[in-house]
Amino acid sequence: MDIVDKNILMINGSTREGGNTDRILTGMIKGIKDREVMQAVLRDMEIGNCIGCAKCRDESACSQNDDMTGLRRSIEKSDILIFASPVYWCEITGLMKTFIDRLYFYHHTNNAHLVSGKKGLVVSPLGETNVFYETEILVSFYNRLFYSLGIELIDMQFYPGLMEKDDLKKYPEMFAKAKNSGESLLNIH
Ligand SMILES: Cc1cc2nc3c(=O)[nH]c(=O)nc-3n(C[C@H](O)[C@H](O)[C@H](O)COP(=O)(O)O)c2cc1C
Q: Is 28 touching ligand 1 by the criterion CB < 6 Å?
């Protein structure tokens, strides 16, 4: 299947409207050109914490009916999932973690096929510049997560040195990197 037939879903786990994550995703959307991209902005959604009731594990259904219900439909329709979150404490924001916890739904054998085989991309701005040190835990975490979900991790992209909300504006080369990355999604088969 060619990329023109593919659906792309961006999951935006940033807490700051108009911050670096938002701008990076805007760059990627520009790169993807006129193709329709779905974006789930988690800070604008009602997604409750996984309550560990194990209904998904036992009955392959979720006990909660919130915005995750619709988001699961978008996930299942997508071919490429972009997980975008700033680095918070060497990892991800609470918003992104809450969303990821709810992906436990796909751990059930009845549901696993709904995500397995999709492609995944990780996008993370961070304030510090020592990328290896700051993202070591994050990289292990995402590798385990994607492996467990059967999603093929195609890339992890880090945008270092972006501490303040408007910092991306200072680095047009980073916006260009985001745009190129969006463009390169057009070549994924
Ligand atoms: C609670 C919190 C924790 C953070 N932890 C880290 C960290 O561990 N390493 C790092 O490099 N930057 C860290 N940062 C900086 C953010 O990654 C950085 O400001 C990022 O650009 C925020 O993205 P945004 O503009 O989309 O909100 C942290 C910021 C906050 C608010």
A: no
Report yes or no: 113 and 105 within 8 Å, Cβ to Cβ: no
d(CA 135, CA 74): 28
Give me the CATH number covering residue 173: 3.40.50.360
90 lines ligand 1 (CB under 6 A): yes
Q: Coil, strand or helix: which one is 155?
A: strand
- The verdict on the CB of residue 163 being under 6 Å from ligand 1 is yes
Domain with 90, as residue range(s), is: 3-185
- Chunked mean pLDDT (size 10), the chain, 189 residues: 71 98 97 87 98 94 97 97 98 98 96 97 98 98 98 98 97 97 89
**pTM (two decimals):** 0.96
